[in-house]
């Protein structure tokens, strides 16, 4: 599952883009479009989760993306190759 974490913080362009994606009718498609540097429609919803996700991420020690949590709750920060990620998850 994904959690929103605009690396540049709340109230930034990244934050606005994430809110637009999370409030869209098709969040998955909108997130994919953003990952591919494509625009998404402007959307806003009162129950947008981006602010909450960001706050939780900060409390858990997330400082950037990607950030993965193992089933044991261990934070794995940064990009890892598939092989290195598998090794990390098995350890």
Query: What is the second-level CATH architecture of the largest domain?
Result: 3-Layer(aba) Sandwich
Proportion in β-strands: 5-15%
Strand order of the largest sheet: 1-2
Helix-strand sequence: HHHEEH
Q: How many domains would you count in the coordinates?
A: 2
Rounded to the nearest angstrom, the radius of gyration is 14 Å
Q: In CATH's first tier, which class of the largest domain applies?
A: Alpha Beta
DSSP strand count: 2
Q: Which topology of the largest domain does CATH recognise?
A: Glutaredoxin
Average pLDDT works out at: 94
CATH superfamily of the largest domain: Glutaredoxin
Q: What's the end-to-end separation, in Å?
A: 22 Å
Structural shape: globular
The total count of helices amounts to 4
Low-confidence stretches: none
Structure characterization notes:
The chain has a two-stranded antiparallel ribbon with strand order 1-2. The protein is built from 4 helices and 2 strands, in the order αααββα. The protein has 91 residues and is mainly α. 16% of the residues are buried. The model has no long low-confidence stretch (mean pLDDT 94). It is globular, with a radius of gyration of 14 Å. Strand 1 and strand 2 form a beta hairpin. The protein starts with 12 loop residues before the first helix and ends with a helix. Helix 1 (13-22) runs antiparallel to helix 2 (27-35).
């Amino acid at each position: 599952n994904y959690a929103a974490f605009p690396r540049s913080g709340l109230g930034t362009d990244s934050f606005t883009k994430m809110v637009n994606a999370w409030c869209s009718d098709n969040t998955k498609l909108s997130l994919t479009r953003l990952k591919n540097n494509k625009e998404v429609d402007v959307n806003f919803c009162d129950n947008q989760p981006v602010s909450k996700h960001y706050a939780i991420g900060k409390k858990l020690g997330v400082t950037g993306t990607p950030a993965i949590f193992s089933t044991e709750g261990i934070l794995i920060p940064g990009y890892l190759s598939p092989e290195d990620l598998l090794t990390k998850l098995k350890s």
